[in-house]
Every structure is written in structure tokens, then in C-alpha cells.
Design goal:
225 residues, 9 helices, 41% helix
Length: 225
């Protein structure tokens, strides 16, 4: 039995524990899925190696600060891990967050015209090149090529039991949310619906279908900003 403690500030509770599924989701122990992840991450890291220098130079010229951005996220069964991306915002973005209106509904944050995003960062986001470093997270086993959107700590602090079900599988570089609206999805409950839909539909070859759809979405920049 997996149990995840968290602080629910919305209800004033100091801590609570949700009990998750006794039997792991089939995707968790799928050797086929892990093989696809390893092969895909190696290919992704090769692409990262080719594009690293030009992207790094562009980031440094455009905005002072580090090349990479890292943040603590929550993965399978609420396990913490550090996610890596190319920096797409100004270096003091977190301090400026209060000045940006949240255009999303629920437990995540979105703003199409967020002034903290740099010129290079906007291009990296629209092409998803900012996410290339996450292939390292996939190789290390913290993420999968296909899964759920990896949540932040301030999100999971307000989760209810339904929301925790998203983490019955590993978070993914892509998923149902990526191929069914991407940045245009601004309702958290819709994200949860899509994540749970992925779990109910999943079979080993389904990941390959999602990956193929993702390639189409990226090449045509569908739903990106």
C-alpha cells in the first residue's frame, strides 16, 4: 500500500494521508515501456548534445542568468525529484510571479503573455526545445516519455484523493494533455481528466501512438505558446 503525506493548506489541515492503489498500474512495471524510455532518452540526449551549444549561447545573449532551470517536482506515488529544462524566463521569475495574472483555473499556473518569458524562451517553449534536458530525467527513471504532467509542490499541497491518482504512473515528457490541447488547456480538472484517461487507456503500444501524435503536434506547433 502506498501512502502520500501532504499539507492541505486549503482545508487548514497540518497533514493528511491518501491511500493509493494496492496493485500498481501495469505501466509502472512494464519492461517494454522502460525499454522505450531508455531508447528514446538516449536519442533525445543525442539531440540535446547537438543543440546544447547554440541554445546555450542564445539564452546567455538574450538574458543574464543560468542556462538551465531546475525545480522540485513530484513523480510516481509522490516521490520528489528535480526536473531540468532550458531556462525560458528571466532569472528572478519566481519573485515576479505575483505580478502575473493566472489565466488558468485550478491548481496550476498559466499566462499566455507572461512578461517573464524571454524572447528566446518563447521560441524554446513554442517548439518544446526547453524540455530537451528532461531526457536526462527519463534516463534516470524519474520520468517516462509518456505519462502525466509533473506537478509542483504548491500544487500537490492542495490535492484531493482524485488528484493523487494522477501519480499512479510516472510523469511524462508528453501525454494526453500534450496531444489534446497543450497550452490551450487552462482548467486543471481537464488536465486531471486527461491524465486519468491515459491510465485507463494504457497498453504498451499506446505510448508509441502518443509519441507519434506528439511529433505531429510539435512539427505543426499545435496549441503552443
Amino acid at each position: 500500500m502506498y501512502q502520500i503525506p501532504y499539507r492541505n493548506t486549503a482545508q487548514g489541515a497540518t497533514s493528511q494521508t491518501w491511500e493509493l492503489r494496492l496493485k500498481p498500474h501495469p505501466a509502472v512495471n512494464s519492461q517494454f515501456k522502460r525499454c522505450v524510455d531508455i531508447i528514446g532518452s538516449l536519442v533525445g540526449l543525442l539531440i540535446l548534445g547537438i543543440l546544447l551549444i547554440p541554445i546555450a549561447i542564445a539564452i546567455k545573449i538574450d538574458s543574464p542568468g543560468p542556462i538551465f532551470f531546475s525545480q522540485e517536482r513530484y513523480g510516481l506515488y509522490g516521490k520528489k525529484f528535480r526536473i531540468w529544462k532550458f531556462r525560458s524566463m528571466v532569472s528572478d521569475a519566481e519573485r515576479l510571479k505575483l505580478l502575473v495574472k493566472n489565466e488558468a483555473n485550478g491548481l496550476f499556473f498559466k499566462n499566455q503573455h507572461d512578461f517573464r518569458i524571454t524572447r528566446v524562451g518563447r521560441f524554446l517553449r513554442s517548439t518544446s526545445l526547453d524540455e530537451l534536458p528532461q531526457f536526462w530525467n527519463i534516463l534516470m527513471g524519474d520520468m517516462s516519455l509518456v505519462g502525466t504532467r509533473p506537478p509542483t509542490g504548491d500544487e500537490v499541497a492542495l490535492y484531493n484523493q482524485r488528484h493523487w491518482q494522477r501519480l499512479d504512473v510516472k510523469p511524462g515528457l508528453t501525454g494526453e494533455w500534450q496531444v489534446n490541447g497543450r497550452s490551450q488547456i487552462k482548467d486543471f480538472e481537464q488536465v486531471v481528466d486527461l491524465d486519468l484517461q491515459y491510465q485507463s487507456k494504457w497498453y504498451p503500444l499506446y505510448d508509441l501512438l502518443i509519441i507519434a501524435k506528439t511529433v505531429y503536434v510539435l512539427l505543426n506547433r499545435v496549441g503552443a505558446f
